[in-house]
Amino acid sequence: MNELLTIKEASEWATKYVGKDVTPSNISYLIQYGRVKRIGENGATQVSQKDLLDYYKSYHGSRENYFKEQFGEDLNWALSFEQYKEVETTKHIHRLHPYKGKFIPQLVEYFLDSHTDRFKREAYFAKDDIVLDPFSGSGTTMVQACELGIHAVGIDVSAFNSLIANCKIIKYDISDIRKEIERITKSLENFIKNSNTIEFEGKLLVELNKFNNKYFPVPDYKYQLRRGEINEKQYGVEKEKEFLSVFQNLVNRYNIKLRQDKDITFLDKWYSAHIRNEIDFVFEAIKHTKNIDTKKIISIILSRTIRSCRATTHADLATLLEPVTATYYCSKHGKMCKPLFSILKWWKTYSKDTVNRLLLFDKLRTNTFQLCLTGDSRNIDIFEQIKRRNPEFGILFERQKIKGIFSSPPYVGLIDYHEQHAYAYDLFGYERKDELEIGPLYKGHKKDAQISYIQGISDVLNNCKRFFTDDYDVFLVANDKYNMYPTIAENAGMKIVNQFCRPVLNRSEKDKTAYSETIFHLKNK
């Protein structure tokens, strides 16, 4: 156990130990972020096999045992999908735009495809069926249906969510997208070419690198943190104050405007003056795009870009606290970091990434119908809306009807779905429908909120089942800690015929406690 391994040897050992591919890059990541200690220098870096064992032992059965102790032996560990890397759970267009609260595509595939196993005893959907997601979100169900040769309808009360979902399944003219990206990028580069922010940011990065190399050496600093040898909070505050004077001198020297003159809207409050100017410039440039589909996907690129450019710390991107306009100690990266002063880098990165993802999905998509409708699933006339938006799909829909649902309804009192994309609503001018959300965070999760939630989900099912086939299958993913779904099923004239309990691993939230959710299978009474 005290044997020293090269990075290549470590990757081979770890691959055998955890039963899935662990690359040399994965081992280098563990070293860089202090999970295991680096021994030797760059030319002959080694790690201790004991360090690796300590890190990986939670992945070799003990984690499964721990979860089953918490949630029972009926926990379906296969539905943890722990064998997949993040690049696989965010494959192709699923990472077209960030979205809090979405499920991973492998979970949708499990229930939509034709395989069976000891938990899933039959196939519920077949090619050319129609599946519905009445809480479409970012469109995961629609995308996976398209891969599997299944038609799909999504519904979402949020206009921006519908835009994301529909942008994922549009068939694009990639050459036109590339042409428009190039045009806008060149215009943006010219717009900021003579800006003092470029030289300012370059000087700031030089100073930050010197400071971080001295006080936060990689990987030693993070390794010491993990062993409790440094009080991170105290040390971080101390160094943050020490660097602040360097930052302020550069701000004064280059006349950098850190805040806008007003903070009325989200775009006013959460972006520096320089960033806001660039956002407005690109937004105006997009308006000159003639192809409507190209305009939509480039708008998504801009939205994704500005989400990454908010004036906040890297650790608080999902839970904004207060605008950050100065350098700060970053607990996520274990060093001093800075706010952004230009969108150019992220605009270029996401433009390239988006085109690549669209090309990947083009190779997998099938010739089927997918469409996300904007509306309230409690009362929308699905057939009329589809017939109006896509008459050909309307004919198919009328003939076949919907075979069932696969959806993850909102959890009571957890997320404000409009607020998570407040920047996009400000920029694009979409009307917000917060009052129509079911179970939003701002209403909490006490008894009144639970009663309202039960009524809301029940109304959705009662409205949607008007468009179902007789032998329908409804799958709803929920963490039902308030035991609301038996009442919901009863209210909708349905019965719960099965429950699939799954562990939820690699949650993005800071709470790392064991967590599970249930996939409720409902059928007609």
Task: Present the secondary structure layout.
Blueprint: E1 4-6, H1 7-18, H2 24-32, E2 46-48, H3 49-56, H4 62-71, H5 86-89, H6 105-112, E3 130-133, H7 140-148, E4 151-156, H8 159-169, H9 174-192, H10 196-215, H11 220-226, H12 232-254, H13 266-269, H14 273-286, H15 292-307, E5 328-330, E6 335-337, H16 344-362, E7 370-374, H17 382-389, H18 391-400, E8 402-407, H19 422-428, H20 447-464, E9 468-478, H21 485-491, E10 494-503, E11 516-524
Parallel strand pairs: 3-4, 3-8, 4-7, 8-9
Antiparallel strand pairs: 1-2, 5-6, 9-11, 10-11
Q: Any idea of the CATH class of the largest domain?
A: Alpha Beta
Reported CATH architecture of the largest domain: 3-Layer(aba) Sandwich
Average pLDDT across residues? 92
Describe the global form.
Answer: globular
Strand content: 5-15%
Determine the CATH topology of the largest domain.
Rossmann fold
Rg, alpha carbons = 25 Å
Q: What is the CA-CA span between the terminal residues?
A: 59 Å
